[in-house]
Amino acid sequence: MIPRKKRIQLTVENTSSLVIDSLCDQASVGGLRVGVAGLYYDFLSQKEQTITNMLGAILKQLVGMGNIPTYLREAFQEGRKDIGGRGLLLADLTRMLRRTIASLPQVFICIDALDECLPRDLPELLESLGDIVRESPKTRIFLTGRPHVKEAIQRFFAKAVVILICPNMDDVRNYVEMRLDMDDEPEAMSDGLRGEIVKTILEKMCDMCVRAFSISTLSTMCAYPRFRADFSLLRYTWTLSWKR
Amino acid sequence: MRWLSPLEPNIRHQGVRTNRFCGIGDWLLETCEFREWRCSEGGADGAVLFCPGNPGVGKTYLRQARDSQKEANTADSRKY
Fold first, then answer.
1. How many Å apart are CA B60 and CA A217, to the nearest integer?
2. In this structure, are A196 and A137 located in the same domain?
3. Residue A56, domain extent
4. Whether A100 and A20 share a structural domain
5. How far is A88 from chain B, CA to nearest CA, in Å?
6. Which residue in chain A is spatially nearest to B42 when comparing CA positions?
7. Residue A20 three-state SS
8. Residue B33 is nearest to which of A163, A167, A209, comparing CB atoms?
9. Statement to judge: residues A31 and A105 lie in one domain
10. Whether this model's pTM surpasses 0.95
11. What is the per-residue pLDDT across B17-67, written as a single tens digit (0 to 9) for each?
12. What is the CA radius of gyration of chain B?
């Protein structure tokens, strides 16, 4: 049983974390020193998520795997001499990042929610990633985001592979059943009603685009005429949704 | 290391993976496109894999349901 109040996510962000974990697991199993870096863009953190900070975070993750390279130590020592310590400029940072990536057998860079990157930063970020790939062709870059950023990506990576994120019906069934398991009034549920809820939702999923698939979605689905006709289902889902 | 970047993406990653629903999205890892991308078979041309998804309410959504994994792996997977 999944603990109550735990927010389960079925999102593109979910996919990013899944891919990152899969790549990390692969790297540890194979025994190769494969570098994996994962970043999550967040609209609420745009001020902090400058391109310099994002590329710096990639470098930080990659050098964090082992000994800090000499060139990085020297740059740090040099920078701390003046005005109480100077940070890296983007050009210096990208140069060191490319050097670090070139020193590794393979590197995976995963960036989630690219659409939440500041529009003015996005071309520069993609250009920097393009430079990395040209210099280290084995580098793999995994990106997620809303569909509209596809054009920007394809301007820099014309042959980018695109896979739409769309859970299959087994995913949906498992999720609905899991959410029903979390109900704190199991006495209001019967096997018949439970089966009907799952069946109806799966049927509806074939015809509609569900935008928020959580318990709150159940209340949305209750707005459909055929759902209204079934009072017990309506009452149950409505109660369930307001409890969340 | 904070000198390189004040960002701590590992904290966000831990939060997301903790809340992940086991099994969701596994189909992606099994697609030919993902496997080829991971194995670097495409060289620089196949360096980028982009997974788009429409926005929903908040961050929790399903874009579209598919009848089967096969359909998700083929009909919706396009190469550019």
1. 10
2. no
3. 12-156
4. yes
5. 7
6. A138
7. helix
8. A163
9. yes
10. no
11. 777 666 667 778 888 999 999 887 667 788 999 988 865 322 223 322 333
12. 16
